Every structure is written in structure tokens, then in C-alpha cells.
Amino acid sequence: MSTKRVDLLIVGAGPAGLAAALEAKRHGLTPLVVDENVLPGGQIYRSVSRSPLADPGVLGPDYLRGRALVDGFTEANVDYWPQTLAWQIGTDRRVCVTRQGGQGAGGTLQLEAGAIVLAGGAQERPFPIPGWTLPGVMGVGAAQTLLKASALVPDTPAVLAGCGPLLYLFAWQLINAGVPVRAILDTAEPGARRDALRHAGGALRAPSYLLKGFRLLRAIRAAGVQHVKHVSSLRVLGKTQAQAIEYVAQGKTQRIDTALVLLHQGVIPNTQVTRSIGCDHVWDDAQLCWRPKTDSWGETSVPGIFVAGDGAGIGGALAAEPSGRLAAVQAAVALGKIDVARRDSRALSLRRELASHTSIRPFLDALYRPADGFRAPADDSTIVCRCEEVTAGDVRRMAELGCIGPNQTKSFSRCGMGPCQGRFCGMTVAELLAQAQGCPVPEVGYYRIRPPIKPVTLGELASAIEAPEFLSERAGFPK
């Protein structure tokens, strides 16, 4: 297998990864960015440089803001490998990457990095409800990806259900695109607003975020979208595809006929890569999720490996940029390109910028805290592991048999052994086990994640690619 040595390897080309690359180059490093996508931008700025939409402005000013970041990255002539999967990363910073598409056949290459910045971002929190595996049900994030990447919009009015800022942002984007929204079913608990007000001081230090939220809600009301609050139960009805959604609000059961249900209850850090490396993780009770344990520069418990952006804790796209830059300046110190004094001088403005975007986070975390009943479904027939079709009842029965953690549950049921390696069930299984045992989630733990992080074909493993072949699209995008 061919091996290439790089100064700084950046995994992911969202706002954190792009900002880290630009900062690294500024301080004399030669960064390499590997990205699974075809174009840089990540999820938040997906396809912003070549939007298929006739008017990308329907996605809003926050989306269009990403064009300047992507353009700056392109003009900087940074080594960029699109459609490239980093599927194994060791504590010695040896990385196996595979080209999965593009020009020519796929193949594998090994990298040796002086330092690594992981900028893989977030994933949608699992939202298992009865019927969520039916055709016609998908995550809001997946639907937004179709809109950004392919200009695909629903051909029928959708019902959006759940909680979190993205739920309202996407409803607003659909309305802008001329697509009617049938209803929004808000699952936030009745006391969420009261709890959020305890953090009003921090929210007031970020007025632009509050104003954006008010504008979204006003536009949604003006469009006549039905907005149901305090929904305590959800069920998608249908035998072979979604036909309706049944919900309970204020003690009354009601139904909306619909062929499209979009679910969302916030996002959580994608920790699959950091777990496979062996980085320490901590439970974040405010965000109800695991995140890698990092210092103030984003460095993990494994020296030389950093996490930037939402992968280190949910902060949003604007916070991801200074987060990526902070990781890059510390990497520059570690690799001998700048001294500590220069690092600290640069970090002053970056930390101020980061704080300006994270001060509202406690307010948002409390306002959109997912309800217990939607994180650990009460209905035993609800599928929690889509890959292996394991139900909530199966997990509870295994807890009764003595399973004390997700890894034992995996051995008993194959839950978490599918292609996603637990991305869509790991949080739910941990919360179900904790509930059954009457203990906190941190005591239950999480799956052991092993490479390959995502499926890799035998043909790709058997086909070694030389570095020059990967570099054929250096500093540009596929034609």
C-alpha cells in the first residue's frame, strides 16, 4: 500500500475543516483536506459553490455566507481530496483512506500525519417512533440535503415533527421554495421555555440568533402553517408506506393524513471516528450526548489528534470556524511552525469570536431539550436498530437478562452490528438500558467502534492507489 506523509490532515470540509485548513496554511503548514463529499462545504454549506437551485437565496443568508469561505479555500490552493473516506485512524496518526468514486476505479492509500484535525461535524439524533422506518418518513437533515445537493423538494405537503432549530429553519426554507408545509408538531416539553429563561443572559449577548428565530417563526405563521405545541406522543400510520401521523397534544389524540413525515429532535456530535481511535469521551448532560474530551485547543486525549466544530460539542456553523482555527494554531505550535507567543496572540481574537457564538448555546439546549419519551420509546414494538430490526422491547428484555451495556446487547442481538455501526441506535440503546437499570447513561457506556468506520469494498482494499493519482484533482473540484 502506498504511503504519503502530510503535515496536517483535516478530515471533513465543513466550516471547521475549511477554516482549519486556511489557518494552517497561514502559519506555514501544508494541510491536506480529505472529504467524503464531491464539493467542500459540509452539510451546512453543501453545494454552495455550485448550487443546483435556480435561486440559492431561498436557503437564507446563513447558507450564502458559506460561499465566501468555500471560495477562500479554493483560492488558497489547499490540497483537497473529495470523495475520499478516512476509514481507519490510529493513535500513531496513520490513516487509511479510500477513494470511493470520481474518475477511475476506487482504491486505498495510507497517510502519515504530523497532526490530525477531525471536522466530521454532527449527526441527527435518533428519533425512533412507531412507523419511523416506513417509506415516506425521513429525517429533516436528509430532506435538507436533497434540497441543497439536488434541488429536490417534496411533491406533497410534509408534516415536520420534533424539536430543534433545524425543524423551523427547514420549514422556512420549504416555504421559500414554494413548497407548502402541512403542519409542525413540536415535541418540546411544556417546561422547556421556563428552563431556557434561566439562560436568558447568555442569549441576550447573541441578539442576532434571537432575531433570526423570531423571523423564522413569524414567516411560518404568516404562511398559515398549523403549529401544534406540547406534543407528547407520535405514531406514523401505514402498512407499506406512510399514510398519516397520529399525535397526542394536551391529552387529545389527533391525526393528520400525510404521505411525508420529516422527523428531527436536534443534532449530536458524530463520535464514531474518535471512538474508533480510542479517544476519551464525556457525557454532556446539557446536550444529552457523548462528546470527545478535549482541551481548550480541541486536542483529544490522544496527542496530536484534534476535534473541531460540532464533532466536539454542538455549537453551530459560525462557532465551528474559530474552533477549527484554534486547533490549527495549536497544531502549528506542535509541529514547530510558530511559537507559543504567536499562538496566544492569534488565539485572543479567535476565542472572543467563539464566545460570541456559543453564549446562546445553554439557552438553545434548554429550549429544545428532547423529551425523555422520545429518546427512549415506551412502545416495545418500536424498532430502535434499523439495520438489524431490533425493537425497544428486545433491548428491555436483554436488560432483564443481565445486559448492562450496549456491547453485551450487541452480542445478544446484533443490535449495532449493521452497516451504520450504531450511529442510528447507539444513543437510544444506551438510554433504554439506563432507564431499565435505573442508572445514569454514562454508567451504561457506548458501543466499541472498530474500523472500517463505514463500509469499504474488497475491491477498494485490494487496489492500492499512488499519491499522485489522488492528487489529480488537487486544489480543485471534479469537473
Automatic annotation (TrEMBL):
Residues 7-334 form the FAD/NAD(P)-binding domain. The keyword Phosphoprotein does not apply. Residues 383-462 form the SoxA A3 domain. InterPro entries: BFD-like_2Fe2S-bd_dom_sf, FAD/NAD-bd_sf, FAD/NAD-binding_dom, Metab_Enz_Cyan_OpOx_G3PDH, Opine_Oxase_asu/HCN_bsu, SoxA_A3. Keywords: Oxidoreductase. PANTHER family: ANAEROBIC GLYCEROL-3-PHOSPHATE DEHYDROGENASE SUBUNIT B (PTHR42949:SF3). This is FAD/NAD(P)-binding oxidoreductase. It comes from Pandoraea vervacti.
